[in-house]
Write a structure and sequence with these properties.
It is a single chain. The protein has 2 domains: 70 residues; 198 residues, Rossmann fold (3-Layer(aba) Sandwich). The radius of gyration is 21 Å and the shape is elongated. With 289 residues, the chain is α/β, with parallel strands linked by helices. The structure holds S-adenosylmethionine (SAM).
């Protein structure tokens, strides 16, 4: 453990914020690297004449911060981890940093399948860091999950995260191009979940440096209209889901109605768009029967 005076830490923080830096990124850095949560910090402000313990030296923290502000490299990549739901997940430049808006996809699934003791087979297509599949497998130990990605380096991170977070073996990892990973899995899954790359070309070209230069294009870019991968997934799904099985997809904020039409065109029913916590139609679901 390393110590720093609370006063020194608070003055440094104020300086960064006055300089126009993003306060949330600062809190994240102190939390992940220093082991000091936002709540701890607020409590420290009440008594600034003490010392505070950090997991790494204050020097290390300031250097990481300087790297972030000078290069725009995301804090999560600098610290090689992030928080997602209740999990601490390893990330690097091979995987998308799982986003807070994706978190409720797990609740959507748990609401569709409210009996965790049932034996349910599910697939997570484009698992990246493994966040979605791992959260589902952990909260439902009797479910059996199959997570895929076309990038072996991403799968290595997902495997690492699962081994690190669970001592269960109810999740396995497959390499392949969407449904190509699932030869011989016809009619197997009770549900399929996916947060595929869905950013349209024009939007992709204008993404911030922090995203465009550091997160994998493979995880973001969805072709000219953004729907290339979503189309593939919905089109192939009927071959792999059980009768009455669900497909749950995350989409770009303005794609809900288009994804709804895709589901309808490929024979799904009970199709609906579900809002994220900001009221944006971020998820579209459909049932096949
Ligand atoms: C938006 S990221 C989602 C990652 C993770 N599921 C999440 O929600 O944070 C999309 C993932 O799909 C993967 N992917 C892209 N094209 C693919 C393909 N053709 N087949 C399988 N996976 C693909 C990418 O490598 C990436 O990990």
């Amino acid at each position: 453990m390393f110590t720093v005076s609370v006063q020194e830490l608070l003055i440094w923080l104020k300086k960064q914020v006055d300089f126009g830096c993003d306060e949330e990124s600062l809190f994240l850095l102190l939390d992940i690297l220093g082991g000091l949560s936002k709540r701890d910090l607020i409590a420290l402000k009440i008594n600034p004449h003490q010392e505070v313990k950090l997991k790494v030296s204050f020097n290390n923290i300031t250097n990481s911060w300087i790297e972030h502000i000078t290069t725009s490299r995301p804090i999560q990549q600098i610290c090689e981890s992030t928080y997602w739901r209740e999990l601490k997940i390893k990330v690097n430049s091979d995987v998308l940093i799982p986003r807070v808006e994706t978190e409720i996809i797990v609740d959507i699934v748990n609401n569709l399948f409210p009996f965790p003791q049932e034996s349910i087979y599910f697939a997570d297509l484009g698992t990246g860091s493994g966040a979605i599949a791992i959260a589902l497998a952990l909260s439902n130990p009797s479910w059996v999950g199959f997570a895929t990605d076309c990038d072996n380096k991403a799968l290595a991170i997902a495997r690492h995260n699962f081994l690190n977070l669970s001592d269960c073996s109810n999740l396995s990892f497959y390499l392949g191009d969407w449904w190509g990973a699932f030869n011989g899995f016809s009619g197997k899954f009770d549900f399929i979940v996916s947060n595929p790359p869905y950013i349209p070309k024009e939007v992709y070209e204008n993404l911030s440096i922090e995203v465009k230069n550091y997160e994998p294009k493979l995880a973001l870019y969805g072709g000219s209209d953004g729907l290339k991968h979503i189309r593939n997934i919905i089109k192939g799904a009927p071959n792999f889901i059980k009768e009455n099985g669900w497909v749950i997809i995350e989409n770009h904020f303005d794609q809900g109605e288009k994804v709804k039409s895709l589901f309808n065109n490929y024979g799904f029913n009970s199709v609906k768009v579900i809002n994220d916590l900001s009221g944006i139609g971020r998820f579209t679901i459909g049932r096949y029967n």
